[in-house]
Design goal:
Blueprint (H helix, E strand, L loop, with lengths): L12 H8 L3 H10 L8 E3 L2 E3 L2 H11 L10 H8 L3
Antiparallel strand pairs: 1-2
Helix pairs in contact: 1-2
């Protein structure tokens, strides 16, 4: 079975957490809780691995674009509070 795309090496939970900028325990908690919106992972025996392209897809899916209201200077002043 060959593919035109080369697969990247799979990452451990700790490596995936570092990539995402979160604690490894957070990824473990998400898995055990069955959280729906978590990065896809692969089970290799008892080991849990993450494909870098799946982590990138997860980050992209969670990316938010600023809205017009986020750019309104009057709203930003209210959020900051009195100075």
């Amino acid at each position: 079975m060959s593919s035109d795309r080369e697969l990247s090496p799979l990452l451990t939970t700790s490596e995936a957490a570092e990539f995402l900028g979160i604690a490894a325990g957070t990824l473990r908690t998400w898995r055990h809780a069955g959280r729906v919106d978590q990065p896809a992972y692969v089970k290799v025996g008892r080991a849990v691995k993450y494909a870098p392209q799946e982590l990138a897809r997860y980050v992209t899916s969670r990316t938010e674009r600023p809205s017009r209201k986020d750019c309104d200077p009057r709203r930003q002043q209210r959020r900051r509070g009195p100075q």
